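Hi U.,

Before I forget, here's the chain from the pilot set. I'm dumping it here mostly so it's searchable later in email.
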Amino acid sequence: MLRRTLITLSLAALTSAAHAQPAATLAPAPDPAPVPPPTPPAKPNPKVKLETAQGVIVVELFPDKAPITVANYLKYVDRGLFNGATFYRASRPPGYTGNDYGLIQGGLQNDPKKVLPPIAHESTIKTGLTHKTNGTISMGRHAPGTAQSDWSITLGDMSYLDADPKDPKKTPGFAAFGQVVEGLDVVQKIIAMPVDPNRGEGAMKGEMLKAPVKITRASRVL
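Structure:
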């Protein structure tokens, strides 16, 4: 009997102690982290369609890398200044008869009624672009900072047209600013066309097409 009484008292004491302890609490749930707004899709690079007598060429331009050069080119396109211009030059190494290496050059040939002011030179060192890639579109110029309305499309590895990182003052290179994405076969067709051995000056001597290829229309695709 005494043992039962002691057990009962012990249980009562434990129960009292349990009730005396503060109730356990849980930390409040943290506020949910704010959900960032969805990233808008990247704006696509502008593309320009060049409709020629030999077929259509589409070039993609890189305004994030060569903003000055791309903006200048698009001014000519948007104002219709390239409509009626020509591809007038086909440059290949002497004696080379293939159609996969060299460049074709087009534009307004300094037509005073159509050319816009010259633009600053965007070196390949700054832009990270290169003439090594097949179908690179690049601005023609005399001295750096004189580029206006004439440009070339290259075939094959033409990285000698890039600026020399070791001596950019001596070899500033040319401003690459886009890439052919359709119609590379048309470029190959034009570069293989006959040239006049007596026409042209300086580096262009013997590289002028006998029958320049008319650009009937240049327009934005995007």
